[in-house]
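Supplementary Methods S3. Input chains for the assembly prediction are listed below.
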Amino acid sequence: MSVTVENIQSLTSTGPTERLARLFDEHRDRLFRLARRLSSDREEARDLVQETFLRAARRPAAVPEGSQAGEAWLVRTLVNLCRDRYRRLGVRSRERERLVQEVETPHPEEAAVARAAVRAALERLSPRRRAVTVLHELEGTPVREVARLLGISEVTVRWHLLAARRELASLLSVKEDRR
Amino acid sequence: MSRNRSSERDARLRDLLRQGDPASGEPGLSTEEIHAMRRAVLSAAPERRRFGLLPALAMGMAAALAVLLAVALWRGGGPQGVQPPEEKVATVTPEPVRPPAPPVAAEPPAPETPEDAAPPEEPVVKEPVRKRQAAPRATPALVLGEPEPPMALASVPEPSLPEPGLEEPRTRHIEFSTPGGTRVIWVLTGDETLLK
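Predicted C-alpha cells for the full assembly:
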C-alpha cells in the first residue's frame, strides 16, 4: 500500500468514516480482482466492489474490528452479492449460452479463447463454489484461509473444491475436444 | 494410479484456469475510479462520531445532577437542618433576664427644641434596646451550648459598652416645650414603659 495523504489521515483517526476509509484503501484492489474473477465483466466487478463497501458504510457496526476480520467480512459480502445477482438476473443460463456460442466461434487469439472458456466454465459454478475455486486455484489462497475468509469450515471448502474440479474438468475438456 | 491421474488432471485444470484467468492482463481500478468510488463510499457513511458523545454526556450530567440532588436532600432533611430557627429562639430567650430598674436619676437639662415631637423619637427608642442587649449578649451561647449565632451578632451594631464599674442610669427624661408654653416630659424606663 502506497503512503498517501489519505492513508495517513485514515491511520491517525479512529472514527467510523476513517475506519471505512482505511478498509477501502487496504482491500479495494484485492476485492476488485476477486470481483473480476467472479463476475462476467469489468463494470460488474466495479459495481460489486462499490456495493460491498457501501454495505460496510451503511452498517459500520457490522464490520468487525481488525484488518483480517474486516477483509473476511468484505469477501463474504462480495460473494453474497454475487450470489444475489446470480439469482436475481438469471445470469447462469444467459451467460452460458452466450459464452458457449462465443467459444465455439473460431477466434484468432488463443488466449482470448481460453479466457472465454474458463469464464464460461466458472459461470456454471454456484457463486460460493466459484469463490472457493477462484480463491484457491487462481489466487493461491490456502484452504484454511479460504475457510476463514468465507466463514465456512475447511471440510466444506475441500468439498466445494472437489466438486468444482470435477465440474470444471468436464466442462473444459468438452471445450478442448470441440476445439 | 487413479490418484496420480486425478492429481495430473487437477494440475492441468489449474494451468487451464490460470491461463484463462479473467483478471490476468487486465488493469486494476484506475485513479479516477478509485477516487469516485472512495467518495461515494465515504459519503454514505453516517457521521456518528460528532453526535455519539451527546447521549453519553447528557446521561453523565443527569447522573451528576441526581447525585447532587440526593446529597442536598439528605443533608437538608437531617436533624441538623432545624438549626437555623433554633438560633433565632436562642437570641430571644435571654430577654427575661433583665436587671432591675434602678432609681430615677437626675435628669440633665434638655436642650430647647422648637420642632415637634417627631424627630427626637429616634434616640429614645434605640438606646434602651441597645443597652438591654449589651449585657446578656454572651449568655445564649453559654446557656444553650450551641455554636455562636453569627446572624444576631452581625445585625446588631457594636455598642459603646460602659465601663464595668460605672452604673449607667436606666431611665431617661425627655422634655419638650411648645411655643405656647406647654411642657411635655417623657420618662423612659428600661422595660420600655412610659411612666408619664
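The mean pLDDT of chain A is 80. Residues 135 and 141 of chain A are 6 Å apart (CA to CA).
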